[in-house]
């Protein structure tokens, strides 16, 4: 019997779930692009009332807007460290794609600066690299899902907008999907002194 | 009821990922991982670079601090973390890590003010508790003059810099003199062989017309311009004289205003903290003039003057012993947190 605490802050939604052997004990979420820092502890505090015993932490590693993304990862790694339990990182786009029962599609989330983070999925697997692009560059004929698809009118679907924390737990049993570092995809926005003068 | 609380403090407001552990007023661990080298090629702290470095450094820093203090995490009575002011992305790595630790362990958490923490680190250097005091905070990030009535809950702001921080002024002049980065230690060293009265550089905001509005504020941009003009006009001048005269002007203004604040408030105690408190001439002048006025001078050990986690732990520990209530778990980090708010 394993109880997992799942956390994702890679989109404008902060999500938490408590899953025991595939069964959802509790889940909660709140939308707010700048609220992750105070919402996440509230949600986890509520989850811990349902079960204070946690065997592992699973966290969405992005890609996603950096500041919000780091809230989830830093919280998760500190929680796991204090409890001395395993921490597993999973790609947040995979946790959106997991529940979609269509053969081939694209998941796109908001990357700010009028761009989206995206990947192509086929037969339940990610078949492209993770990427960041302008929405207009994503003409494919494939159906779109994810917050970014909705934001840039690539799709009318209101489903599968955000990473599902329960899916994070389901994916965590596949070692090949484990991610050990944040998926930033972009370099820090700064020019070195030599770059600036040239 | 234990009298000596064991507290872990987390500081990530700028470019140092720092963890400190104290027991009461005793320092047990002070681990600092700096990303300063990563910023050097950008010529200043890049917030996103700092935030990424914090996320990578914080768990190893926690491990090292626990080991250094020779305790186990379970032994801790409370956690403390810098909630502001600082870079928001950097602060959030610290506060989110702290709430993660707090919820995992059920330990109370104190979300404290970075500036108040700079002053409270005095508790680790001096045995006698801090009486009401004037505090001068001088570093690359801040230049503030505070009146500390009670470090755990009653602080007044007397003044601050209107432009550059004192440490920034040192860095800029060091660049003009081609002394490299960081500028403080380099100017301090070079000034030792120069004449302090060689050049009469301006003392910002010290004239009668400034007193009404800016009695306790600072301004260093005029001084910087004056030094630049002087170097341009007299290229043959000795660098050591420029360094010594510049340093004298900064130190003179800082200490004059700090001691004036003591006189005006009737408080006969002065704490100086922040990286610039390591400047040897500042310490010399402060000691000399404070003694003359009968003001007790308290300067923390140099390693505790720059940003560190021990100062955050120290403030947490003082709050525990003052019986202050812990912060709600959903407190938010605040890049512009006022010093009037000691904890959230
Ligand atoms: Zn500081």
TrEMBL record, chain A:
User: InterPro entries in the record, alphabetically?
Assistant: ATPase_NBD, Gcp-like_dom, T6A_TsaB
Q: Name one GO cellular component term.
A: cytosol
Domain (Gcp-like) spans: 40-165
Write one Pfam family the protein is assigned to.
TsaD
Any one GO biological process = tRNA threonylcarbamoyladenosine modification
Q: Which PANTHER family does UniProt cross-reference here? A: TRNA N6-ADENOSINE THREONYLCARBAMOYLTRANSFERASE (PTHR11735), TRNA THREONYLCARBAMOYLADENOSINE BIOSYNTHESIS PROTEIN TSAB (PTHR11735:SF11)
NCBIfam families (alphabetical)? T6A_YeaZ
Q: What is this protein called?
A: Unannotated protein
Phylogenetic lineage: unclassified sequences, metagenomes, ecological metagenomes
Automatic annotation (TrEMBL), chain B:
Keyword match Zinc: no
UniProt xrefs under CDD domains: ASKHA_NBD_TsaD_bac
Q: Cite the EC number.
A: 2.3.1.234
Q: Which Pfam families match?
A: TsaD
Q: Does the keyword Nuclease apply?
A: no
Keywords attached to this Swiss-Prot or TrEMBL record, sorted alphabetically, are:
Acyltransferase, Cytoplasm, Iron, Metal-binding, Transferase, tRNA processing
Q: Which GO terms describe its biological process?
A: tRNA threonylcarbamoyladenosine modification
GO MF annotation, one: metal ion binding
Residues of the Gcp-like domain:
27-313
InterPro entries reported for this sequence? ATPase_NBD, Gcp-like_dom, KAE1/TsaD, TsaD
Catalyzed chemical reaction(s): L-threonylcarbamoyladenylate + adenosine(37) in tRNA = N(6)-L-threonylcarbamoyladenosine(37) in tRNA + AMP + H(+)
- Its name, as the record gives it, is N(6)-L-threonylcarbamoyladenine synthase
What species was this sequence derived from? Answer: freshwater metagenome
